[in-house]
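Changelog note: in this version the structure field was regenerated for every chain. One regenerated record is shown below for reference.
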Amino acid sequence: MNKWIGIDPGLTGAVAVFESGSLTIVEDLPTMAKTTGRGRELDAVWFADQLDEWKRGADAIYIELQQPMPRQGVSSTFATGMTYGAICAICSFAHIPVFRVRPNAWKKAAGLLKKDKDCSRTLAMRMWPTHRKEFARKKDHNRAEAALIAYFGGRA
């Protein structure tokens, strides 16, 4: 079977499943209110349960590699690291290969180097016109990137 899972990590991230030449699933990562303090965090239990379903027959999981960004605040860096770490840990228990992909690798393959995030949405809508509604809003660039990461994984 040819099935790949792509993940654009982060609290506004997304997951996509590319199977047998078709994009089959595009979803936002689940979040919930933090148990302490304000804000949101990854709903790790929901994500683990969903991943258990999505991984059946999958060849690999591709996760965009995260790293601190210049001028990013300490709290934001910590939150990003926590979410990324939780996603990587949950995926490692899936018992299928997990690959961390540098953003410039999949973006180069997609012709998106040095392009803004909206270009990812535009490309995804062109590649998968039956999924246009999943990429319709400006904030759906994370869904588009998850789909493009999954597609990249299938071609790697």
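Spot check on this record: The chain has one domain: 3-155. The chain has a mean pLDDT of 93.
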